[in-house]
Automatic annotation (TrEMBL):
This protein's UniProt keywords: ATP-binding, Cytoplasm, Ligase, Nucleotide-binding, Purine biosynthesis
Designated gene of the protein: purM
Annotated protein name in UniProt: Phosphoribosylformylglycinamidine cyclo-ligase
Organism: Brachybacterium hainanense
Enzyme class, spelled out: ligase
Entry keyword Transmembrane: no
Keyword Cytoplasm tagged: yes
Entry similarity comment: Belongs to the AIR synthase family.
Length: 381
């Protein structure tokens, strides 16, 4: 007796549905196209995006700035709550706000979504969020890729990554080379947890026996709503600032992401200088105190993981500080002076028995040091 004929194996039976991918593209096309200005050539569906950079001829020495990132385990919360239209803004923020730190204007962004199974509506929600983030940042979403990985990822699993390119005039690049003793450090409010430290946050919530649908009085909403608050995009406000007379006093910017405030600020402080940051100058949003309390998280660990209420920092000339704060606050971005730049030998040593923390030599940068001192209003050491 002959063996039965084998059943034909198709790409679809192997777990990849190309028709679902096509439907996802149709659902997202309008949102993507809305980010395109006249400098974008072609439309959605091309093998690569085309950007007319004729305007760069007006630069004396244009430098391209590039960045790439993801949003980490914040995605686990989006998946748990089946809410996917905000995670894209997080992605854009993590990328373009790294670019603006150099004083560069982001021009174009691409995204990559890997998933276990293409659910067109879910993919479209993610991309709509990316497009919204690009709109807020003033850059174009010029391309992307959605990859279906059955057997490698679970049916409801996905991850996102993105990359962007921007431009800055060489003579206007911001960074540690401009920082001087006497400069003032200005902190700008975050919108919440942003997109870092969610492995810690998730562990704390789980250990406390709380669910994402739990309403927390101090937050005025559920834990899930708080946790999925999109990362603030600072790009446009900062680019507007840099075009003003006050902006000429900006020497460096620092995006507070993984590693926290001190570790990231130390990256833009040159050797021979240090920064003293006074925690008493700002009060973190309630979610930060809740995470600390629920998990008995040491302050040093909390600060090395979360943004603690400040998502972007500027180091500015002392004579420009007041005008910079007024410009940012006037644009709807709360800001205040949180510290000062000192000569390294003038930086106080951490006080024994206090909550002082001295951070230096982070992210592979051999630069200055940052001393975190004092305590946030209403917090105990």
């Amino acid at each position: 007796m002959s063996a039965p004929a084998p059943q034909p194996i198709t790409y679809a039976s192997a777990g990849v549905d190309t028709h679902a991918g096509d439907k996802a593209v149709e659902l997202m096309k309008e949102a993507v196209a809305a980010t395109h200005g006249p400098e974008i050539l072609g439309g959605v569906g091309a093998f690569a995006g085309l950007l007319d950079v004729s305007a760069l001829k007006d630069y004396e020495r244009p430098l391209l700035a590039s960045s790439t990132d993801g949003v980490g385990t914040k995605i686990a919360i989006a998946q748990a709550l089946d809410v996917h239209d905000t995670i894209g803004q997080d992605l854009v923020a993590m990328v373009v706000d790294d670019i603006v730190v150099l004083g560069a204007k982001p021009l174009a962004m691409t995204d990559y979504i890997a998933c276990g199974k293409v659910v067109p509506e879910r993919i479209a929600d993610i991309v709509r969020g990316i497009a919204e983030g690009c709109r807020l940042a003033g850059c174009a979403l010029v391309g992307g890729e959605t990859a279906e990985h059955p057997g490698l990822m679970g049916e409801h699993d996905y991850d996102v990554a993105g990359a962007a390119v921007g431009v800055v005039e060489a003579s206007r690049v911001l960074g540690p080379e401009r920082v001087r003793a006497g400069d003032v450090v200005i902190g700008m409010d975050s919108s919440g947890l942003h997109s870092n430290g969610y492995s810690l946050v998730r562990a704390v919530i789980a250990n406390a026996g709380l669910g994402w649908d739990a309403h927390v009085e101090e937050l005025g909403r559920t834990l899930g709503e708080e946790a999925l608050e999109p990362t603030r995009i600072y790009t446009r406000d900062l680019l507007d600032l840099l075009e003003t007379p006050a902006g000429e006093g900006v020497h460096a910017l620092c995006h507070v992401t993984g590693g926290g405030l001190a570790a990231n600020l130390a990256r833009v402080v040159p050797g021979g200088l240090g920064v003293r940051v006074d925690r008493g100058t700002w009060e973190p949003a309630p979610i930060f105190e809740r995470v600390r309390s629920w998990g008995a998280v040491p302050l040093s660990d909390l600060e090395a993981t979360l943004n603690m209420g400040l998502g972007m920092v500027a180091v500015v000339a002392a004579e420009a500080a007041e005008a910079v704060i007024a410009q940012l606050s006037g644009s709807g971005l709360p800001a205040r002076a949180i510290g000062e730049v000192l000569a390294a030998d003038a930086l106080p040593q951490p006080r024994v028995g206090s909550a002082d923390v001295l951070v230096a030599g982070t992210k592979g940068v051999d630069g200055g040091a940052v001393l975190m001192t004092g305590m946030h209003p209403g917090w105990s050491a």
